[in-house]
Design a protein that fits this description.
Keywords: Glutamine amidotransferase, Transferase. The protein has helices spanning about 15-25, 75-90, 100-105, 130-135, 195-205, 215-225, 230-240, and strands at about 5-10, 35-40, 55, 95-100, 115, 120-130, 145-150, 155-160, 165-170, 175-180, 185. The protein is of the alpha/beta class. The protein has a single domain (about 5-240), classed as Rossmann fold (3-Layer(aba) Sandwich), CATH 3.40.50.880. The strands form 2 sheets. A 9-stranded mixed beta sheet has the order 2-1-3-4-11-10-9-6-7, sandwiched between helices. Helix 1 (about 15-25) links the parallel strand 1 (about 5-10) and strand 2. Helix 1 (about 15-25) runs antiparallel to helix 5 (about 195-205) and helix 5 (about 195-205) packs antiparallel against helix 6. The radius of gyration is 16 Å and the shape is globular. The termini are close together.
Length: about 240
């Protein structure tokens, strides 16, 4: 099997490792089958898509809607590299699954708008599938609705040209979409369990996702949530796209 490529943008080593480990577990892949590149640490270059079965992009603290002057040089570089990659995978309809930050990467393609209108606090919420989501080969394996962990400052307020809406919450109209047949973005985090989201709440306490006094109550609510279904997307993505 050709390996899958995992792209991360988290500068915190422990959180970056936890995210990668969670995606490994969810996909059922071994490390040599899910090759990681940390974009915050160095250039991606121009990957040869023929070398890979598909690409998975993790989340992170970058927001495309941040003012340019507040973005670090690493963020500017990562955004440019991911924009070029997004254009290539859409043109070729190459298997791509972007979790959380995938919304920013794919949602800003022509016709799309990503802004701060539909941000949601860190929590678990029911996610509803659209008719297209229920019929989709990737999302159609999920129940409707399903609970998912999420927390984001920005979201898609207008879909890019040709995108198909797959899922929404009551407070965010675009939680997943597809371009072509094989290019996907989710706003929620399919890889997260209660332990991992609590660790991220701690790790990003200074990033403006919540007020300091909310930290322990957010973790308590996350532990009480029953989130089990979204991780199935990862194994299904591999099942659909693994190539010899």
């Amino acid at each position: 099997m050709r390996p899958f490529l995992f792209l991360g943008t988290r500068a915190e080593d422990d959180v970056a490792q936890q995210e990668y480990d969670a995606v490994l577990a969810g996909t059922g892949l071994h490390p040599d089958e899910l090759v990681r590149v940390r974009l915050e640490a160095g250039p991606l270059g121009v990957p040869d898509l023929d070398d890979w079965s598909g690409i998975i992009l993790g989340g992170g603290p970058y927001n495309v809607s941040d003012p340019d002057e507040r973005k670090s040089p690493d963020q500017h570089r990562a955004e440019a590299e991911l924009r070029a990659l997004a254009e290539r995978v859409v043109e070729r309809d190459f298997p791509f699954l972007g979790a959380c930050y995938g919304i920013g990467v794919l949602g800003t393609l022509p016709g799309g708008v990503v802004d701060r209108e539909f941000g949601e606090p860190i929590c678990a919420l029911p996610v509803r599938l659209s008719d297209e989501g229920r019929a989709d080969p990737l999302f159609g394996i999920l129940p409707d609705p399903f609970d998912a962990y999420l927390g984001h400052k920005e979201a898609v307020s207008r879909l890019p040209d040709g995108a198909v809406l797959l899922a929404s919450t009551d407070t965010c109209p675009v939680h997943a979409f597809r371009i072509g047949r094989n290019v996907y973005a989710t706003q929620f985090h399919p890889e997260l369990d209660a332990v991992a989201i609590c660790d991220r709440i701690d790790a990003y306490s200074a990033h403006g996702y919540y007020e300091p006094h909310e930290q322990e109550s957010l973790k308590a609510a996350a532990r009480e949530a029953m989130v089990s279904e979204p991780v199935r997307l990862l194994a299904r993505f591999v099942e659909l796209h693994a190539r010899a």
